[in-house]
Target: Sigma-70 family RNA polymerase sigma factor
Amino acid sequence: MLTEETLIDQLKDRKTQSQAFEVLVDTYQKRLYWHIRRIVLDHDDADDVLQNTFIKVYRNIEGFKGESKLYSWMYRIATNESLNFLRNKSKKLGLSDGELQDRMIDNLEADVYFEGEAIQLKLQKAIATLPEKQKLVFNMKYFEELKYEEISEILETTVGGLKASYHLAAKKIEAFLKSG
Model:
């Protein structure tokens, strides 16, 4: 297994770049897919956003300064790509963010790639009601089991703020699940 520093060096070297990029994709593809999927909800949309994320990583690796971990940097790109995708999709469809969220939840119920049971669908509906930042923090902490310090690096915010966001998100989700 390559160290992160070695992988970054190989990604920046024209001779080893394509092989290193294959390693990068193999290493992070699944984690990034699920991170994106929890934001955009749809399998095909998640695949498109994942592809755009890796294209951005490839094009911008030269500018990666190593001030954060490589995966934190890639998660930040994936998060921004996902949020931009949703904004563009709601504009294209002429829907508000809330209307788009409702439509995405409805589509999730019909999605052949969604293997969840009723309780998982209800959890996704609860998460969909959260404000953007709470949704991101909850998904990263609950599903991806990232530490607050890692989430702080990805979202470029304080650990204290993240803890408050997670706590509020958990309370809202709990209330939503109890209400119906």
In short: The chain has a mean pLDDT of 90.
